[in-house]
Amino acid sequence: MPGLLRSFLDLLDADALEGLVTDDQVLDRTAVLVAVRNAADAELTRTVRKAENMQAPERDGTRSMRSWLRGHVRLSAREAARIVRNGRALEQFPAVAKAFAEGAVTAEQVAVIAPAAAVDVLAEAVGQGIDVSAVDELLAEVATTQEHAVLGTVVQHFLARLDPDGSEPDPTERRAVSISRHADGSVSGRFELDAVGGEKFCSVLESMVQADRPAGDLRTRSRQLGDALVQWADNTLAAGQLPILRTVKPHVIVTIPLADLVDLAALPGAGSTGFGAEISAARARMLACDGNVTRIVIGPEGQPLEAGRTKRVFPPHLRRAVDVRDHHCVFAGCSAPSHWCDVHHLVHWAHGGETDVDNAALLCERHHTKVHHGFRVERQPDGRWRTWRPDGTEILLGSALLA
Fold first, then answer.
1. C-alpha dist (Å) from residue 217 to 29, 208, 230, 319, 328
2. Which residues in 206-230 are b (16+ Cβ under 10 Å) and which e?
3. Helix 94-101, helix 132-145: angle, nearest 10
4. What angle do CA 364, 203, 365 make, to 5 degrees?
5. Per-residue pLDDT at 322 exceeds 50
6. Degrees, nearest 5: CA angle 133-45-2
7. Closest alpha carbon to 104 in 38, 17, 31
8. 349 with 313: CB under 8 angstroms?
9. FRET label pair with 219: which of 25, 100, 120, 284, CA 20 to 30 Å apart?
10. pLDDT grade, residue 111 (50/70/90)?
11. For position 402, what pLDDT does the model report?
12. Which burial class, exposed, middle or buried, applies to 271 when counting CB atoms under 10 A from its CB (0-12, 13-18, 19+)?
C-alpha cells in the first residue's frame, strides 16, 4: 500500500485535476484512485480484524467492533457488518487478501467471496478433499480479471458443489424488505429475495414495463420500473382481493378540507394520507376524480359531528361506459389499457363538473398527473382526443405532424 499512496500523492502533485487535458490522463487518474481506495479498504479491514481479535472495543465499553464502528465512526450497521465479515474471510484466503492489499480487488468483491470462507463451508471442503488454497487462488484470479457478476457465479458454484444433494433451503429465510418514510412523505427501501421469489417479482414488473410503452417515452429504465411497481400496487388494490385491513378492504385514504380541495391556490400539504404522508390539494383532486368520497362535518373543537354516506364518484355503470368508449388512456401517444386507468373529470366535480360520460376521460396514472399539472385533453365531435401542453401547444403524433 505505501507504493500506491506515493503514486497517488505524486499524481496529485504533478497533475491537479483541473490541469488534466487528455482522456488518458483522466482515465489513469481514475484507475489510481480506485486502486488506492481498495488498498485503503484492505488496510481498514485488516485493522478492524486485529482490533476484533484483541477485543479492543472493550476499552470503550463496546461489545463488538460492529458496535464500535457504528457508534464511534458512524458507519451504517450494514457497512460495519461487511467490514467485520470481510476481515474474517481474508484470514482464510491469503491470495485474495494479497490482491485486496495491492488495490486489485474491491471491498464489494471480498463481500461476495466471504460466504465461501465460512468455517463450516471450509470444513466441508476439507472433508471432501478439496484444496482450499487452490480455491483461494482461483477466487483471487477471477476477482482481478473477470467482471464483477462472474465472481458471484463462481462462488455460488463452489458452494453448490459442496452439497449438491443437500436439503432444499427454505426460500422465505432469505426474503426481507425494509421501508423508510421520509419527511416529505416519499418512501425508499431495499429488498432481498431468493432466486425463485426474485424471478417472480421480475417477471411481474417486466410485464408492467412492457405493457406501458407510450410513444416518445424518455423515462430511464429505473423510472420505468418505479412506475411499474406503483401500477402493480394500483392493479392489486383495484382487484379487491387483498386481506381486510382495519375492518375494510385496503385502499388509499386521503383527508382534506373541502375548502382546500376546491381552492386551486391551496398550499402543498393540504391533504394527509392514511399512513401519514402530506400531499398537495392538486394530488388530492386527482385521487378524488375516480374514488370514493365521504363527507365528514367537523365541529369547532375538532370533533366529528356528522359522517355522510360514502359515495363512489364514478359508479360502476358509468365506468363501464367510459371503458367501452375510450378503450385505453386517451393522452396523446399512450395506449395504457383501461384497467390501468382512472376516470378523470375534465371539469372536476369539486368545481361543479358533472359526473357523466361526456365529462370523463380514461387516463393512466402518469398522464392523469400531467393533466392535473397543466396539460389538457379534449374530445372532439368526431370522437378523437387531442392533447395540449401547459404552454398551449398541441402534442402531435406521426401522421398529424406530416399533415
1. 37, 15, 17, 28, 17
2. eebbeebebeeeeeeeeebeebbee
3. 30
4. 10
5. yes
6. 90
7. 38
8. yes
9. 284
10. very high
11. 45
12. buried
